[in-house]
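Morning run. Coffee first, then this:
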Amino acid sequence: MSHTAHIRSHRKPRRSASTIAMRAGVAGGVLSTLAVAGASGSAVAAEPVTQTLELPTLTADLAAQVAQSADVTQQAAASYELQAERDAAAAKAAKQAKADLAEAKKKAAEEKKNAEEAARKAAAERASRTAERATLSASADTGSSEGSGSVSSSSSSSSSSSSSATGSAAAVIAFVQAQVGDAYVSGGTGPNSWDCSGLVQAAFKQVNIDLPRVSQAQSTAGTQVGLDNLQPGDILYWGGAGSAYHVGVYVGDGMFVGAQNSSTGVVQAPLSYDPPSGAVRVL
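And here it is:
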């Protein structure tokens, strides 16, 4: 026996082909599994890279949207501000218009009040004058003989007044004295009713002198004369020259004839009864 016979051989036992094939298959399966896992791991690991690449795009879009939203907000704010300014202007204009209307109404009320007051004063003056004339006319009807202060005495002195006038003046005076007692009618031109200027016009027409129809024009129809230098036949006027509201005829001896008003009609009265403002001479 060999001296090495008791030592186990170090040679590896031979493996069968089936064992090798099986081991190769197992190894291949393991490798395949590892390959699949590695591929899967690579895919999973790649996803963050893909997301990271897309982030800049998402960020840019978001910035654009934010900028656009800011523009829209700014435009809306500007629109609201403009509308607010327009509303404020409209409110201010409405307030001013209301104030102007109130002021206009106030002025209109004051003017109306002043006009009414003036009308009342004028009516009172007319009533006072009418009352005085009515009293004078009543005195004439009762035959009062108080001298130049009464209508009756003026009527009784008509002959002396006429006797002091000659020619055309006498004819004018005779005509107006013949109408004493006729009615007063606004716009009247005879033969039985007159207004003041209608009577004067008709009287001077008797001597072929054409006078204007209204008292305003008659007060400037001739030469202006002073009331202290009157002559029979002069035209007396009340009011201003060119703006007279009444006319009559001076018949002499401080007397005149005129169509006064609806209460007295045509009367002959002293100048003191209703002192005239001026006179004109056309004869």
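The longest strand covers residues 246-252. Good start to the day.
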